[in-house]
Amino acid sequence: MTQTALPGRGMEPVPVTVPVVSAVTGAVTAAAALVYAQVALPGQPLLSDYALVPGGMLPVLIGMLALAWGCVSLAYGLAAREPARSAAARVLLLAAAAGLMLSAVFPTDPGNAAIGTLPGEIHRWSSAVVFTTLPVAGWILARGRVPLPKWNRVKALSVTSGVALAAYLAAHPASITSPLIGGASYYGLLERGVVLAEIALVVFMAMTVVERRPAVRPVVPAPAESSERLAA
Q1: Which parts pass through the membrane (predicted)?
Q2: Residue 220 half-sphere exposure, CB side, CA atoms within 13 Å?
């Protein structure tokens, strides 16, 4: 992979690694699948419900598995860049990937189902793992860092994802607070906001893996003349 030098700054860029490209590609593919389902399929309350309509299973599977691949790739990239410091974040990313794969394998129950099925319960709880682990992973990864713009973006998206998730849970019809705030009319919009924020969080976490490192400059020995004068 080629590199582009920045003249006059004494810095040489680190090549964009395969895990970073893979993580960003997975996240972008997930976002594209979400947009396709939203535009091309009949409207549904929640994103998982698109799997229950004709033609909806494929984009839902692609979106979930692509984001899972992005999380695994990001964990691999962090392991190569910061094996000790990123350990906790990597565990959470792998947990999110596992939750996404389970959510893809086990479909959700229809919204009008009177009794929940085992696959539906697995889907529900695995989705909860995904929603909660990604913001925590971003916060842990950015915690204690130098306040550079890239880390500030990761922190901001982590907080945004957490706040959106709290609002979604409060508005969900299964919550006791939903009737108080009229959540049934907009909880689906909040869920989409959570998903988009967490996809963006994966992208920004991946971009932090690509850093610039100071170029190693050779040590120039002192001229022989100076040494002779000092000796005299």
Answers
A1: 16-37, 57-80, 87-105, 125-142, 154-173, 193-210
A2: 3
